[in-house]
Design a protein that fits this description.
Structural class: alpha+beta
Oligomer: single chain
Number of strands: 22
Helix content: 10-25%
Number of helices: 6
């Protein structure tokens, strides 16, 4: 991930945590329809494109972006919680200290998170890349939450977009799910505001079944506040990781005191983990929780700490749009 390459830069990722800085504007903006649809032929092309070898060879790509000032974001709305459908809802009492805290290690406890989490593969500027994502409870039973830059970056929507739950070193035990539509927040669409680095995808049925009827689904929460016990998951592919395993970090999160309004968590995950889910009220016993963020970026001058956007009202609007698409 080359965290020391640029002392004052911020890392983003498209299938990686890209070495770069942040861009934003001072006010919220509505940009386009914040969505990109895939034709039936494009979906077939994506399904055929991602062979096991191509998935294994999708590597982090370093990109830079010009620095910009970040705006302050108000957080005052009432919390909204949608329960998991993968297993009984978790509660704070379910959290065991067995895997807490953890700055980065393979998840071996099993549970629903093994099936709801997966790798995201796509083509960016003609090159193969990967991120991470997670299946959540939704009306269409087909919604994946990821990072904004994992669906659109530097003005271009990614192509050949697929979600592979429970990815296992080139294997897709629960299938490759092609996107019918990818979406992001208006703020990420307009100016790549890191506070809103959130993306979503709606995936097509596979063999007559919807995504979450196969994988189960995690819960999701909006406007839940800061300073929570968190579990973060992803498939980092940059050294020392290789993208073959589900990796997790856990600990008590805090609010970023530097440039963003994001959550922060001690975590050494590297490129490819972007878009992986952050959970509160996570049960190690069932592997379920409430998703409240995604892996987004890290500061080069602050190694081994990950940051993820706060899921506020704009994230909720994105989720609502995705789940009825």
């Amino acid at each position: 991930m080359r965290r020391h390459r640029i002392a004052t830069a911020v890392l983003l990722s498209v299938g990686a945590l890209f070495a770069g800085a942040l861009t934003t504007t001072g006010t919220a903006q509505a940009a386009g329809d914040t969505g990109h649809s895939f034709s039936a032929s494009a979906q077939r092309e994506a399904a055929n494109f991602w062979t096991p070898d191509r998935m294994r060879s999708a590597t982090p790509l370093d990109l830079t972006a010009p620095p910009g000032a970040l705006r302050q974001v108000a957080r005052s709305a009432t919390p909204t919680t949608i329960a998991p459908t993968a297993a009984p809802a978790a509660s704070a009492a379910d959290v065991s200290p067995a895997a807490f805290p953890q700055a980065g290690g393979a998840w071996t406890a099993g549970g629903a998170v093994v099936k709801t989490s997966g790798r995201v593969f796509f083509t960016f500027q003609g090159r193969t890349a990967s991120c991470s994502g997670n299946a959540v409870t939704s009306q269409n039973a087909s919604t994946v939450i990821t990072a904004g830059h994992c669906v659109k970056y530097q003005g271009a929507w990614h192509t050949n977009w697929v979600f592979v739950p429970a990815y296992d070193n080139g294997s897709a035990p629960y299938g490759q799910w092609t996107a019918t539509k990818t979406l992001t927040t208006p703020q990420w669409e307009a100016s790549e505001d890191i506070n809103y680095d959130i993306g979503a995808a709606v995936v097509a049925p596979l063999n007559g079944r919807t995504l979450t009827s196969v994988t189960g689904a995690q819960g999701i929460q909006f406007n839940g506040g800061y300073n929570k016990a968190m579990y973060a998951f992803g498939f980092p592919a940059a050294s020392p990781y290789d993208g073959s395993k589900l990796i997790y970090c856990s600990g008590n999160s805090s609010k970023d005191f530097l440039l963003s309004q994001d959550h922060g968590l001690a975590c050494n995950m590297t490129g490819g983990s972007s878009g992986g889910p952050w959970f509160t009220s996570f049960s190690e016993a069932t592997g379920t929780g409430l998703q409240v963020s995604v892996n987004s970026f890290g500061y080069t001058f602050l190694p081994n700490r990950m940051f993820g956007p706060y899921f506020g009202t704009d994230a909720q609007n994105l989720y609502n749009k995705a789940q009825v698409s």
